[in-house]
Structures are given as structure tokens and as C-alpha cells.
Amino acid sequence: MSTVPEQHRDEAPPMVRCAVVAVSDTRTMETDRGGAIVVEMLRAAGHEVLSRHILPDEPIPMRALLIDLRDRSEVDAVLMTGGTGIGRRDQTLETVTEILTKPLPGYGELFRMLSYAEIGAAAMLSRATGGLMGRTVVLTMPGSGAAVRLAMEKLILPELGHLVREARQ
User: Fold this and answer.
1) Which residues contact 68 (CB under 8 A, 6 or more apart)?
2) d(CA 4, CA 124)
3) Whole-model pTM over 0.90
4) Of 35, 79, 136, 144, which has the maximum CB count within 10 A?
5) Domains of the chain by range and CATH?
6) What is the pLDDT of residues 12-44, one digit of tens each?
7) Under a CB-based contact definition with an 8 Å cutoff, are residues 98 and 139 in contact?
């Protein structure tokens, strides 16, 4: 007998259409290792990467891009790297939460729990967050390669289809 989450995973789309956004004042397509890892892991899991963006840690262009991606019917999920710390320029949390219609506090909580197991108390400096912008899933993660791999392997890839299924209900 299957559980409800297992049943929902079985009903989830096998391929999710994603936009990847790196928030950085210094990275370029050539130097954005975090975004490249997200793209690589999504494709390896059979998902589609519709677009990839790099933008500065500025609320106005970040909000505009997120609203544009939210309003595109072909985009199921937006995966963001960078800008999740506590530095003066880190504004991803504030910008994303401002446009969430349904926050997913468990995503950030689980990320920090898993991160704590790897890096200790420094995990508290991460402000990774997630939720829904209308019917579009948005998940943020730090920009480091290790943090991206952790989020993708342990949280995002195992539940991405399920998240999209629920968001589209």
C-alpha cells in the first residue's frame, strides 16, 4: 500500500521545465559554477532548462525577472543560487518572499538542517527559502557548489515533480 506522498510522486510530471537564476554581482556565465551545477543536475535527472540568467543582487531587476518567469505558462519552477547570506548585498530572501503567494518554510529548514550536518553552526547564516509564486515553484539556495549539490541532491530533485504537481492543482 502506497502512502499519499508516494501516490502524489507517481502522479507528478516526470519532466519539469525550469529557469535557473544566479544572483551575483561578480559572476558571469563562465564563472557561475553554482548555476552550472543546477543546469547539469536538472538535465541529468531528465528535466528541461528553459533559460538561465545571471543578475546582480538588486531587488528591482530580480523582482522583474521573477514576475516575468512566474507569468510564463511554460515555466514550472525557478531555481535560484546566491544572495542568500547575511551580507549587506544579499537581498534574495527579501525580494523573493515579497512575491511569494505560499511560502514553503520546510524547504529552508531542511536545507539548514542538512547543511548543519556538513558544515556545523555556520549553516545558520543561510537564508535559503522557497515557495510558490502563483503556480510557479521558486527555490533559492546559496551559490557555493557544495550548497547547490546538497540542495539539489537531498531536497530539490527528489521532490521537484511533486512540488510542481501540487502547485498546479
Assistant:
1) none
2) 32
3) yes
4) 79
5) 4-167 (3.40.980.10)
6) 888 999 999 999 999 999 999 999 999 999 999
7) no
Cα separation, 148 vs 151, in Å, equals 5
Q: Mark out the alpha helices in the chain (DSSP H runs).
A: 4-11, 33-44, 59-70, 92-99, 105-119, 145-151, 157-167
Cell of 139: 527555490
Q: Among residues 57, 145, 144, which one has the least CA distance to residue 93?
A: 57
Which cell numbers hold the place of 151? 540542495
Which of these, 29, 143, 134, lies nearest to 75 by C-alpha position?
A: 134
Q: Which helix (H) or strand (E) element contains residue 53?
A: strand 48-55
List C-alpha distances in Å: 93 to 35, 40, 42, 89, 141.
Answer: 18, 24, 23, 11, 10
